[in-house]
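Team,

Forwarding the record for the chain on the shared tracking sheet. I've put the sequence and predicted structure together so nobody has to dig through attachments.
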Amino acid sequence: NHVDRFKCMLQPTTFSNQPGGDGNDAVALQGEDGCVIIVQPITWAWDGDAFVFESDEDLNAINACFAPGVLISLGPMTPSPSIAPSDQSVIPKDVLLLRDGSDCVFQHNPSNHVDRFKCMLQPTTFSNQPGGDGNDAVALQGEDGCVIIVQPITWAWDGDAF
């Protein structure tokens, strides 16, 4: 009578049935040795001793990161939503996502394309893949280990724009 979910037992704490329900916003949480797991919380502390959540991670990764006796906290420097870095194989071979010196920009143009971000790259191999919008989310790791989720439109348009 509920979605597939995980439950980690907690040391006794203050009861919280928040946020309640399923499909909530993703949150990056840090556990053992700085590992980061993205969760969609169902209840933060059901009955004051159970953290219930959804996640795309497998049970082994969750048990390793949220090990017994580990304080689970918000992931440092990780925007929400965010997940651990994706398998590098999703980026086309020979495409290097090395940023140039300019800031990324937000492109708003509802008559021509979906709202999107554009980041300039140092010259790399051209790739218009995956193409279109609404593509599968990919987690990328950047400076100081920050992780951000993107839905790539093109990996390297003109060989210099992501």
